[in-house]
From TrEMBL:
GO terms for biological process: amino acid biosynthetic process; carboxylic acid biosynthetic process; D-amino acid metabolic process. GO terms for molecular function: D-alanine-2-oxoglutarate aminotransferase activity; pyridoxal phosphate binding. The keyword Transport does not apply. It comes from the Bacteria. Its EC number is 2.6.1.21. Keywords: Aminotransferase, Pyridoxal phosphate, Transferase. Its cofactor is pyridoxal 5'-phosphate. Homodimer. This is D-alanine aminotransferase. The gene is dat. One of its GO terms (cellular component) is cytosol. It comes from Paenibacillus cremeus. The keyword Transferase applies. Pfam families: Aminotran_4.
Length: 282
């Protein structure tokens, strides 16, 4: 089935082919903007509230005034899902500071530009079942990794590094302290206790991370928001990553070393099951 993709551009629904973005958009030459990816299960936005809260927080930090309220944006995204007949997948949205001749200071009168589209895909059942491999690498990013900005070059370079090594993803560390992955958060299990990096300026405050914290509590699993080392990572009983698209994905081998038994561990499985139960049905 081939269907024209409809994009949301500002307040209008426009066919992809008819969409024109200014070459002077600051997102294009400065990466001056922010984005969000919200999962859609059964045609419904998943955890929209926390995504909008993070969007608002990033916009405030970047001093990009949002041209709409949360309710307005939410209604527009729901409409976008409908017009594209999306059942399973996600909504990508970005907001840039606007278009203006290239000059570093904020332009006096730029209008922020919103663009959003939908992508259709299924849950990653194979990697959820089997897990992925990873390689550790230096976290060379800036000190505001808590902001979801368009500046993803270090993440892109790191992900390609993983691909070049034949691995599924990277695990970043700063001088031996594990932070997160290229597009997901990282959790380890040791002696039935989960550890994950505190939600400070060094990691993105993942929405899936939040969901898993909540689920761990519900399931009576002990969880510490505490930094851990690469050494602890490699010697963990279980490792998994969390993100909107990866959900709870086991990591079974890191830097060529098997994690635990080399198979997805029991607490990872328990959290995967608990996560599945949060997915809205029709
Ligand atoms: N860390 C980074 C660097 C990311 O890009 C993402 C994905 N947006 C995450 C963590 C996971 O966040 P979420 O669970 O909200 O998708």
């Amino acid at each position: 089935m081939s269907m024209t993709q409809i994009y949301l551009y500002q307040n209008e629904f426009v066919a992809k082919e008819a969409l024109h973005i200014s070459p002077e958009d600051r997102g294009y030459y400065f990466g001056d903007g922010l984005y969000e990816v919200i999962r859609v299960y059964n045609g419904k936005l998943y955890e929209a509230g926390p995504h909008f809260a993070r969007l608002t927080r990033t916009a405030e930090a970047l001093r990009i005034p949002l041209p709409f309220t949360e309710d307005e944006l939410s209604a527009q995204l729901e409409k976008l899902i409908q017009v594209n007949e999306l059942h399973e997948g996600s909504v990508y949205m970005q907001i840039t500071r606007g278009a203006a001749p290239r000059s570093h200071p904020f332009p006096a009168s730029a209008e922020p530009i919103l663009m959003a589209y939908t992508t259709s895909y299924q849950r990653p059942v194979a990697t959820l079942e089997e897990g992925i491999t990873a390689v550790t690498t230096d976290d060379i990013r800036w000190l505001r990794c808590d902001l979801k900005t368009l500046n993803l070059l270090p993440n892109v370079m790191a992900k390609q590094h993983a691909m070049d090594q034949g691995a599924g993803d990277v695990i970043f560390h700063r001088s031996g302290t594990v932070t997160e992955s290229s597009s997901s958060n990282v959790m380890i299990v040791k002696n039935n206790v989960i550890k994950t990096h505190p939600a400070n300026n060094l990691i993105l405050h993942g929405i899936t991370r939040l969901v898993v914290l909540r689920l761990a509590k519900q399931e009576g699993i002990q969880l510490e928001e505490a930094a851990f080392t690469v050494d602890e990572l490699l010697n963990a009983d279980e490792v998994f990553i969390t993100s909107t698209t990866a959900e709870v994905t086991p990591v079974i081998q890191i830097d060529g070393k098997a994690i635990g038994s080399g198979k997805p561990g029991p607490l990872t499985r328990q959290l995967q099951t608990a996560f599945e139960a949060t997915i809205p049905s029709k």
